[in-house]
């Protein structure tokens, strides 16, 4: 029978950088007792992203930070909106260039991620934050 | 009982810039009588985007325009495809760097947006256009 | 009655560039016998993207390649992660700037794409690859 589950993950970030949440999301799928279905994540913020990326080599995440620091530098004089500091508007732009929601199919009770894919919250602010990710699951127990 | 609703919003843009659609989408959710579910938006165009961003300070949207005008400038000699004018290909690139579809969970009959999140159609062409957003809702009335 | 279908498309790419998959995905929708519903695609890789873009003028895709080659150049000395060659890290960045999953509503048995929208796998590596796209469909036969 078709069913749904809805929950919220609270993710503590340590400032700018990646926080893997693959296991947390898989746990939600397992608890929902869905074998075949769809899992949608929505991050309720405008200065952090959800990203699916390589989970093997940590250099990949380091290079992501370096690339985005060059593309959208903190303190860029282009920006007017600096209310919360020089990393405020760059964090909004980084978020728009990536995404705040994702949908991953579920098969045999597992997220259908590729071998090298991990799910990450990418914090774009320099200071640590607590980020909320809404997890919606719909599907069947077979 | 699980149900679905499908409708299309017609959004009149005033040329390049942001048009908020949060209320229009919430109205679709309310009319669908879904308490728990998933709302997916799909924009049927290749030169405008859907974006979830800060709804508080209008400077944020202004800075977005400034950043993208620098990153993907109109009339860039790099581009061959200029059939519809010098803002044509830049509009396609801006669309690809952001997105044309989004999925937001629904809880207690409300879109699960964060406090500062608004849903926008981001027009990338200079001229006003009418844009179609397909709204799909699936869920239950409890 | 609400139903689901789950399948995997194997797409052979010819190296960097676009491979249209609109018909392959529509075939999945038709086989699922869903008239109203939602179709979600998830690409199981970190160096190729899914993109919805203009299907009319091939110059558009050519210009996309030119823009991204300038924005994220192969062999950029910024990158540390070069294990698989100088197009390795740029392929990850291009993937993050676009997306690996998409959801398109279905109405009257057809994907609700706009007139000019096509679904593409965008290969970011120079060498040909076989890419897996998981296709999840949920909906009703009316």
Topology:
The structure is a homotrimer of 142-residue chains.
Chain A: E1 3-12, E2 17-20, H1 22-32, E3 36-43, E4 48-54, H2 58-71, H3 88-97, E5 101-107, E6 110-111, E7 117-123, E8 130-140
Antiparallel strand pairs in A: 1-8, 2-7, 3-5, 3-8, 4-7, 5-6
Describe this structure in words.
The structure is a homotrimer of 142-residue chains. The longest helix of chain A is centred in the middle third of the chain and has 14 residues, at 58-71. Chain A has 3 helices and 8 strands, in the order ββαββααββββ. Chain A is elongated. Chain A has a 5-stranded antiparallel beta sheet, with helices on one face. Chain A has 142 residues and is of the alpha+beta class. At the A-B interface, β3, α3 and β8 of A face β3, β4, α2, β5 and β8 of B.
